[in-house]
Amino acid sequence: MTGLFTLLFISCNDDEYGPRKESTPVIESAAVTPATFTFGDSIMLTAMITDPATNLSGLAYEIVSDNRTLASGVIPIGGASHDVAQAIFVPLLSGQADDAEVQVNLIARNVLKGTASHQITGLTGKRPVYSQLYLVTDGGSVTTLTPLSADKNRFHADGLTYDTSFSYRIAEKLNADNSIDYSGDVYGNVGGKIGLIGESGESAFAYAASADYTKEFLFDSYLFSVSTTGSTLGPDDLALSRFSSSDIGGELFRVLDTTLEKGKSYSLFGDLANARNLYNPDFFERTAADKVTFLGETGEYSIYYNPVRRNIFVGVDNPAYPDYLLVCGWGLGYPTHVTSAEIAAVYPGRGRTHTDWGFGNVLNYVLMRRIDENVFQGTFYTPGDHDHYAGFKPFENTGWGNEKQAGNFTFTGEQIIQGDNNWDIPNGENDPVVESFNYRFTIDLNNNTVHIEKVIL
Questions:
Q1: What pLDDT digit, counting tens, does each position of 69-85 carry?
Q2: At 272, phi and psi to the nearest 5?
Q3: Rounded Cα–Cα distance for residues 400 and 397 (Å)
Q4: Which domain holds residue 304?
Q5: What is the domain-level CATH number for residue 371?
Q6: Which residues contact 270 (CB under 8 A, 6 or more apart)?
Q7: Residue 184 maps to which CATH number?
Q8: What are the tens digits of pLDDT across the range 364-378?
Q9: DSSP of 108-163, one letter per residue?
Q10: What is the total count of domains within the chain?
Q11: Residue 3 in domain
Q12: Pairwise CA distance, residues 436 & 431, whole Å
């Protein structure tokens, strides 16, 4: 009997949790700072919890406003007393009122399920105030959203040239390079709806039905809703919806056969207006983010867009002198802002240069446009940044007609060409390394001169 009593006494009063004495925690103090805060920011919860009889286990919190729970969780605590100092993010929810009363409900627990509750009141939550927001698409386009005069919670942009569908984020702040600054509020996809996200959050998705492109975008920061307005293309508008897909030399291109007029301005829509796209400067002048002027002669052209290289150039059927010179060989490429590493990540072994000996496809050669009688201009990236070598030659047609040998010309400007036959940029042991860059070649057949200059694009 004595042994049984002793065992019962031990099991009832002392185990891994400490003395098994029924008790309740005591919330000695609890506060939230600041007392007035902005939804979408963090608050600091401090509290002192004690229970000298039984070990503490957790402090549950619930942040409530307008009968909605904004945030909740459990903070682990232990021992006979515990000082709590916990930052808690308070989200901005759809339809959240401004200057709203907020309360924090607390429940402290010990390991034997004893509880104590406490409520912190006198808190005020304010809605964030934005002077403007930024619509940032996953493709890199950025548009400023300005508040409507009739409703400061609704932000609008008109005159867009976006695709009918696109993924996006809405940011309060941008970095100098137009990337999102996540120290400000950022809206994206939260469970299929618009909501505040962090840097690892997902983009939201917009779609303009029964349209050729998206013209307007409206974001309601109170209701967390987005609406778009679509429109139709005009005859002189350029959008990928009008382009067909084609495999050229093992690379995916979008191609449009169309008439282009000299001096005419064309509007760019969707991905064609992306700031990273580089339009061949010998045939296009980009006068605005969404406009180009055609510099070539009026005629029938194929417009080629490479979505990996992000460059746009033109081709014609059977290009030939006196309208064009064609340059083929090694180490030339139409200009692009995309690096060789980025290109090789999609097309292994390839880079910014792409020409070859031959005229089998538009990647094998590059076009030079006639800018005056017997004067031709072409802007190319050369030499290859993997070997700093190039060897090429201009021709008058795709039948290897009337090749232009280097020894027949006088070169001025950048002295990068050597050789009597091929136009070589050598990379021998004793040769200077020529910087891979965008060079503009101007060939004057009237006096057999070639001027070469570096061009920043």
A1: 999 999 999 999 999 99
A2: -65, -20
A3: 6
A4: 237-454
A5: 2.60.40.10
A6: 161, 162, 163, 164, 166, 213, 239, 240, 241
A7: 2.60.40.3620
A8: 999 999 999 999 999
A9: EEETT--EEEEEEEEEEEE----S-EEEEETTS-EEEEEEETTEEEEEEE-S--B-
A10: 3
A11: no
A12: 15
